[in-house]
Amino acid sequence: MKNTGLGRGFDSLIPTNFDKDLLIDKDDRIQHVALERIHPNKQQPRRHFDKEALTELSSSIKRYGVLQPLIVVPDGDDNYIIVAGERRWRAAKQAKLVKVPCIVRQREELEQLEISLIENVQRVDLTPIEQAISIERLHQEFNMPYQEIAQRLGKAPTTINNIVRLLGLPKAAREALDKNNISEGHARAILALKEYPQEQEKLLEHIIKEKWSVRQAEQYVTAIKQGKRGSYAQKRTTIENADTKDIATILNTKVTLRHTARGGKVELHFSNEQELSKLINQLKKLKR
User: Is the distance from CB of 178 to CB of 125 less than 8 angstroms?
Assistant: First the structure.
């Protein structure tokens, strides 16, 4: 099966620069614990579990098993309390499993990891993707609502939601954002085309190769959603070619138009000092 999205396990959610001293290798920590020894957290804010979705998950578990371990903490007498994964636990019970894979953490370690993750998000040198990964770990491993994460970080809930959404970017776009080849504004424009994967690729290419601004990327998104797929870039290029051709005719020289993140520039070409001098005189005449 091909793994997609965030269903690949917590390894995919660990930042490369995360303090690994706080963790023990996941494979060494997985234990298969009897379902009867595992109990939900009474403080778990989630109370409603969609029955149809649970039935679907239960059918998947019958066929493939529990692919992502539960996170639990000891509760004395060989019992455990669920920190993350109650939905999987309920589906496993429905599938009549006897045991499920669990990652057992100590409460003190869990608190330390939580603090470290919060500090990690607050670091100024993290990329947006690394921030998103840490926030999602807080949400997944600690059942922490995004609203609570926002409060702890002193950020608006919309800011947290926008950061986490970056994990939904196509792989190439995530890498471009991680390398600072595109901005968060560009990334959000690409996300807006999630229903058009091919257009996401094209938009990313335009942004990187043609140095499109965020505004230009947003205009492209609008054109695609209005059914003008492929026409925006073509129309824009046609207009620009006509404009540069007019300038080249007036000045009798080659003209190149280049876009940058904050606008662009027009380049006038010359082969020698004589041509430069002639070009300057032509520009002076235009000024008069």
Answer: no
- Give the active site residue among 36, 86, 108, 201: 86
d(CA 48, CA 101): 23
Q: Which CATH architecture has domain 114-167?
A: Orthogonal Bundle (1.10)
**CA dist 150 → 88, 136, 138 (Å):** 26, 12, 11
| pLDDT tens figures, 158-186 | 999 999 999 999 999 999 998 889 999 99
- Residue 55, phi-psi category: left (phi > 0), alpha (psi -120 to 50), beta (remainder): alpha
Query: Is 111 among the catalytic positions?
Result: no
pTM of the predicted structure, to 2 decimals: 0.50
| CATH topology for the 10-109 domain | 3.90.1530
Q: How far apart, in whole angstroms, are the C-alpha atoms of residue 126 and residue 132?
A: 10
Q: For the chain, which residues make up each domain, given as ranges?
A: 10-109, 114-167, 170-232
